[in-house]
């Protein structure tokens, strides 16, 4: 798939070199009781766009950790390259910064049911992974009450190879479907490298995602939990250039396939969750890239 970046961003990139990305958008609330999970599954099977968020240049989703409570402030997940402040530099990790990023929360049919707004950027980077996580102003209970939207759960485990996945894009009101086709130890694009990236089946018309699908959640079709975030693909067949990621082999050689698409794993977030459901990058076993000391 072409790079998950939006058409607007690409136009800016042509003029400015590296375009600044619009920030990730907020996520909506969820009933965190065990009894609520079957309802979430049924809802997602009926329409994949439920609880996705449309940003001005990217896609995003309303998310929760497995341990999140209804009274917690909701969260929104998207790509690091969708950060409103521009592409984080290689090696840069942004944590706990004010944000007023907003987006449109969609229902199962792709209709806007609420506007959500962030008050905090919890985490953003394009190093090791390509993710941004925002805290919203409303709680999960607030969003459930006002918009009848339940947040998607970030899985606490790595996706399985060959598992079937769906990639709902709020930006385009379209859901892509295919399967996981292995993992890439190091994926390189321009100045950035990502670890253990999800490779999609190719050739496969079901996952030919396009610009604007950046930040879309990758949902496991069996559990209906988020296992990744869609982030890039090789547009032109070039090697390791922007919008043309390459796979770095163990011997240091590189390979690239025009049209091959990728995403980033998200279970890393669950390895960094503190007892109060906040992110703690100092937690033992936390896999997220840390800021330079």
From TrEMBL:
The organism's place on the tree of life at top rank: Bacteria
Signal peptide: 1-30
Keyword tags: Signal
Classification via InterPro entries: Peptidase_S1_PA, TAT_signal
TM ranges: none
PROSITE patterns (UniProt xref): TAT
Protein's recorded name: Serine protease
Species, as recorded: Luteipulveratus mongoliensis
